[in-house]
User: What shape does this take?
Amino acid sequence: MAESQTLQPGADPSLLLVDDDEAFLRRLSKAMEKRGFAVEMAGTVAEGKAIATSRPPAYAVVDLRLEDGNGLDVVEVLREARPDARIVVLTGYGAIATAVAAVKIGATDYLSKPADAADITNALLATGEDLPPPPENPMSADRVRWEHIQRVYELCDRNVSETARRLNMHRRTLQRILAKRSPR
Assistant: This one.
């Protein structure tokens, strides 16, 4: 298990968690409170923006894809309200383009789900140019490939032929992949 850093005494412990997965949000909130953070939770982009505007936290963990929009909207509002905030963007759809967009608008780091509280804490508390240690159990290459295929499939409105064309893959091969369970 990765050893995580702890919040420095005297540091502003305010932390905003924005995620539409309620069970994950509650688990992460409890874990971060144990690490010394004062947690405020939001389940939508609208709630996240409201908290970022009225009570800008020192730290934030924002899911990229939320039911009511894009988590990067929350990152932008928070960056305007509190330029020194440390923000980690979380997503189940790790993609280089979204990682670049997140960092360009002010995210401190970008982690793929599933990320545990230790990985998130290390990313939030990394100082200067230090990179946080690599995750203890990152997604396998097969899982990353599967996630990418699923994302393109969803973006093509679950159209197998269009997805196969965009991925430059034979339609039957894609159908076999989609019929299988996700790799670990």
User: Anything to note?
Assistant: The chain has a mean pLDDT of 83. Residues 50 and 118 are 27 Å apart (CA to CA).
